[in-house]
């Protein structure tokens, strides 16, 4: 991206003070995501590998985070992007750094990290006869469909691709707004609209329109092109986080209104569980709309509540924070492959559901830790797992 002196001078005037609460929230969000993907082995929802101990009741704890876990990741990613932009020496440098930190691990992940997931799914579901090495060297890079699995694939790494795409759109917008006064005006407008109860009402109305009117009961494809329900949810969440980093008024409003968000989240979750467990019904268009409203209430209410809690009680540093903040991305890159492969190894085991779950948690934590520390120690591996290059 070509920069004029005006862009270099005005795109982001001052640095942003680190918000430790948002760091802890990011760490917690990724930890929940990893546990959620372990849970996917045991619930009757589509996943790459399933346990013999699939239980319908296990959806109840999964539904507690299902509505907001990914939206929260985009909010905290947008917040971090504003801080990174403020520290960068020019918009072009910001774009280059973010592209390097996102696209290189994405390419490495698609080529090396994700393929075992596709192989396990093909073996378990479609009786794929060949071993993994043959699959990776002969079939994975053929750009076709095997069974119902399209190869190559990015699977859970869709989040990285979407994050880069939103970052690119953000950079285009920042380049278009070259005058500092205009950027201050944007921050003022954001703080005015969302500086009071609007921080609850406005995003909740948008989310309700998505889930109850425009796309009731529509799933995300994670294919980037045509995935409108995802883009209409996640890109505004990303922009919200970006704007929040320079809006004390909105952060103050979140600190005031987060208990209301918590009540909305709990009420939405209770209604969704009632529908999923068959206590409310029957299914039909009217119920779809009410489900969408409950989903929106749980989604945005939980995000406001969690940010408010992070602002009030967790905006403080600790010795382990820096390491965990650096480790979450490498953990994210590799965690699902570990889960799927271990679930495959345990496929014919005599373990109980509890024992299988415990093994999956322990193996995932151990494998992710080894991946992070091993990659961090080797300079040429660092960019591949999303870490900064050493000088």
Automatic annotation (TrEMBL):
State one molecular function term (GO).
acyltransferase activity
Question: Is Transcription set as a keyword in this record?
Answer: no
Please list the residue ranges annotated as the Acyltransferase domain: 20-372
**A Pfam cross-reference name:** Acyl_transf_3
Keyword Mitochondrion listed = no
What keywords does the record list, in alphabetical order?
Acyltransferase, Membrane, Transferase, Transmembrane, Transmembrane helix
Q: Which residues cross the membrane?
A: 24-45, 57-80, 100-119, 156-176, 188-208, 228-245, 257-275, 287-309, 329-347, 353-373
Q: What is this protein called?
A: Acyltransferase family protein
């Amino acid at each position: 991206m070509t920069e004029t002196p005006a862009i270099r001078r005005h795109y982001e005037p001052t640095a942003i003070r680190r918000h430790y609460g948002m760091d802890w929230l990011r760490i917690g969000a990724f930890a929940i995501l990893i546990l959620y993907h372990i849970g996917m082995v045991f619930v009757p929802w589509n996943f790459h590998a399933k346990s013999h101990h699939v239980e319908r009741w296990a959806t109840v704890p999964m539904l507690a985070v299902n509505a907001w876990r990914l939206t929260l990741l985009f909010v905290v990613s947008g917040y971090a992007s504003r801080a990174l932009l403020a520290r960068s020496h020019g918009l072009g440098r910001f774009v280059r750094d973010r592209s390097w930190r996102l696209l290189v691990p994405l390419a490495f992940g698609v080529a090396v990290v994700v393929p075992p997931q596709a192989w396990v799914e093909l073996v378990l579901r479609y009786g794929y006869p060949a071993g993994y090495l043959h699959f990776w060297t002969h079939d994975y890079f053929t750009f076709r469909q095997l069974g119902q699995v399209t190869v190559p694939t990015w699977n859970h790494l869709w989040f990285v691709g979407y994050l880069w795409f939103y970052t690119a759109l953000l950079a285009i917008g920042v380049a278009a707004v070259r005058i500092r006064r205009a950027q201050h005006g944007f921050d003022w407008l954001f703080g005015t609209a969302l500086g009071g109860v609007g921080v609850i009402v406005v995003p909740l109305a948008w989310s309700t329109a998505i889930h109850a009117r425009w796309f009731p009961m529509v799933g995300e494809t994670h294919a980037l092109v045509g995935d409108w329900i995802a883009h209409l949810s996640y890109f505004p969440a990303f922009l919200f986080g970006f704007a929040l980093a320079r809006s004390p008024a909105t952060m103050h409003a979140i600190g005031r209104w987060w208990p209301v968000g918590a009540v909305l989240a709990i009420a939405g979750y209770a209604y969704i569980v009632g529908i999923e467990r068959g206590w409310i019904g029957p299914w039909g268009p009217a119920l779809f709309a009410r489900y969408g409203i409950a989903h929106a209430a749980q989604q945005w209410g939980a995000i406001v509540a969690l940010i408010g809690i992070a602002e009030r009680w967790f905006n403080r540093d600790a010795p382990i924070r820096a390491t965990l903040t650096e480790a979450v991305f490498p953990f994210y890159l590799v965690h699902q492959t570990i889960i799927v492969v271990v679930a495959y190894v345990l496929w014919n085991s005599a373990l109980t559901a509890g024992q299988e779950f415990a093994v999956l948690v322990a193996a995932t934590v151990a494998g992710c830790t080894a991946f992070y520390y091993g990659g961090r120690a080797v300079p040429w591996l660092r960019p591949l797992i999303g870490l900064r290059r050493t000088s």
